[in-house]
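Weekly modeling sync, notes
Attendees: S.R. (lead), two postdocs, one rotation student

Agenda item 3: backlog of single-chain predictions. S.R. asked that every request posted to the team notebook include the full sequence so nobody has to chase files. The rotation student volunteered to paste the first one in as an example of the format we agreed on. Action items at the bottom.

Example entry:
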Amino acid sequence: MSIRARAFKFGDDIDIDHIISGKYKSNDMEDMARHAMEEIDPHYYERVSPEGGILVAGTNFGCGPSREQAPLVLIYSNTRAVLAKGFARIFCRNAVNIGLPLVQCDTDRINEGDEVEVDLEAGVVRNLTSEEGIPFTPLPSVMTQLLVDGGLAEHFRKHGGFALK
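Predicted structure, as returned to the notebook:
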C-alpha cells in the first residue's frame, strides 16, 4: 500500500484540540472536517481537501484527551496519512480503528509542500522533492490489511469477523 501526496508540516505536541476543537463536536463529520487543524492553520481544510495531503509532525502527535473524532476529521479533510516522530497511544489506537495510516519516522527531512510517497509494506517514506528515502519499521501485514479495509469496523463488516492473513 502506497500513499502519495503533498506534505503539510506542523511541530511537536499537536494535541486533540489542535486537530479538532471540542467546540465543533457534532455527528456531521464533513462539517467538522472543515475545522480540522484550524487552531494552528485556519486554512488547513481548504489547502488539503482538494487533492489530499500527508500531515507531517514532530513528537507526541495526538496527545491530550481522547476524542475518537480526531482521526476521523483528518480522514474527512482528505488527509491520507500522518507522519510523526511519535504518537500518543490513544490517538494511535483510534486511528487504526478507523483506517488512518500513521507512520513513525524522522520527519526533520520533510518540508512543507514537499511531494512525499509512503510505502507501508517496504517501510520507506520517499521525499520526492529532495530525492531522499526515510526508513521506518514496516507495518505488520495485519495492520496493512486493516488499513486497506478502511479500519477495524470496516474489516469486520467486510469479512464477518477477523480475516487476517
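Discussion: group reviewed the output briefly. The longest strand covers residues 2-9.
Action items: rotation student to repeat for the remaining queue; S.R. to check formatting next week.
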